[in-house]
From TrEMBL:
Protein name: 2-C-methyl-D-erythritol 4-phosphate cytidylyltransferase
InterPro entries documented for this protein: IspD, IspD/TarI, IspD/TarI_cytidylyltransf_bact, ISPD_synthase_CS, Nucleotide-diphossugar_trans
Keyword Methyltransferase assigned: no
NCBIfam families from the UniProt entry: ispD
Assigned protein family: Belongs to the IspD/TarI cytidylyltransferase family. IspD subfamily.
Residues marked Transition state stabilizer (site): 15, 22
Classification via Pfam families: IspD (PF01128)
Class in the EC hierarchy, top level: transferase
Length: 230
């Protein structure tokens, strides 16, 4: 029995526009991916990590992540796929083949490099408590509008019932495999599980678990977050 974290890190980081794949972008000299993997191990409950790397950078990713493995744990690196969900599926298949005693799987964006370890632990604890799918969330602070193709507002959903979704998302391993094998599309793994009719439970997320997507996000991380984690 053990927890394996899958880290989709194969994106190009086009919205960031840094010139190297986003996972390798340094913040205070430390690549985002290294920070993300460190945070997973620091939670104290993750045994192995499987990273889906940009296909052109598998060797570099192996080099930067190799020193992160702790006693009894491993960091495996493989080439990711065309879409995030392809990268997750490839990493999941690898994990279940290489670590067959895995019972809990986390999926964690390399781009959420500053996620506090206590959020990782809260997700794992909730899966271990019997919830087959668990996601960290934050309340929505802006009013949200639904618009049509012309940008005209068609609805204003009640924001008290809305949540912003972060990672790591945690799953019973067989449930996540079933969700990926169903061949559906969703922007996160919990979205695939929902379509199976499996309940998805929420735990509190954290503002530091922001997804670094744009140059603004990177500037925020550099200005606010480095001190606590460098
Ligand atoms: N084919 C892909 C695309 C994305 N990801 C990963 O999924 C996470 C969330 O994706 P996002 O933040 O959108 O990253 P990018 O795809 O790199 O961003 P962009 O769309 O700006 O290129 C990131 O850690 C990214 O590396 C992945 O593993 N494989
Ligand atoms: C998984 C995710 O981070 C949850 O908010 C998000 O859906 C990833 O989206 P992206 O467009 O691949 O960045």
């Amino acid at each position: 029995m053990g927890v394996v974290a899958l880290v989709p890190a194969a994106g190009r980081g086009e919205r960031l526009g840094y010139g190297v794949p986003k996972a390798l972008v340094p913040v205070d000299g430390v690549p985002l991916l290294v920070r993300a993997v460190r945070g997973l191990f620091e939670a104290g409950c993750v045994r192995h990590v499987v990273v889906a790397a940009p296909p052109s950078d598998v060797d570099t990713v192996r080099t930067v992540t190799a020193p992160l493995a702790h006693a009894g744990g491993a960091v495996h690196v493989l080439a990711g796929g065309a879409e995030r969900s392809d990268s997750v599926r490839l990493a999941l298949e690898h994990a279940l083949r290489e670590f067959p005693d895995t019972d809990v799987v986390l999926v964690h964006d390399a781009a959420r490099a500053f996620t506090p370890p206590h959020v990782v632990k809260a997700v794992v604890d909730a899966v271990r408590a019997g919830h087959p799918a668990v996601i960290p969330v934050l309340p929505v602070t802006d009013t949200v509008k639904q618009v049509d193709a012309d940008g005209v507002v068609v609805a204003t959903p009640d924001r008290s019932a809305l949540r912003v979704v972060q990672t790591p998302q945690g799953f019973d391993a067989r449930t996540l495999l079933r969700a990926h094998e169903a061949g559906l599309h969703a922007t996160d793994d919990a979205g695939l599980v929902e379509r199976l009719g499996v309940p998805v439970t929420t735990v509190p997320g954290h503002p530091d678990a922001m997804k670094i997507t744009t140059p603004f996000d990177l500037a925020v991380a550099e200005a606010l977050l480095v001190g606590g984690q460098a």
